[in-house]
Amino acid sequence: MKNKKTIIIFGGAFNPPHIGHARAIEVLAHNFDCHEIWVIPSANSRDKTIHATSRDRLAMLKILLNEINIPQDILIKISKLEIQNKNLSSTFETNLKLKTLFPNYVFHFVIGSDIVGDIKKFWYRGLEVFNSINFLVLKRPGYEIPKKLPP
Hints:
The chain is an alpha/beta fold. It has helices spanning 19-31, 54-66, 91-101, 119-122, 126-132; strands spanning 5-12, 36-41, 75-78, 105-112, 135-138.
């Protein structure tokens, strides 16, 4: 992993992006050693249909990201990786595509403590996702961080 670029993947519907998203990005940028944070608005997935247009969500994200406080040495960028995908998206497929496109990067996906328990049971190829993807788990109010965590 030495000399590899470390990237945080912050995905979500962002329908709309809100202060909680902004605060999470700030916390990550100030507390996790990374080079970049990629904000990835999701396409429709197997468990969620998004009603706002991709264009509107991208515009709202640009406004939000212009207002946050992050260290100057960390690049924040919006990725269209999922919204350009015509198929349903999943964390498994997004991770596979990222590893193929950027083999020298190390990715860490952000999730809330409220959904860690759902990965193996409900996510597409959940057991593989749980065992093979690096996650950063943010504590959400009312949800403890589970004792059994993915990598």
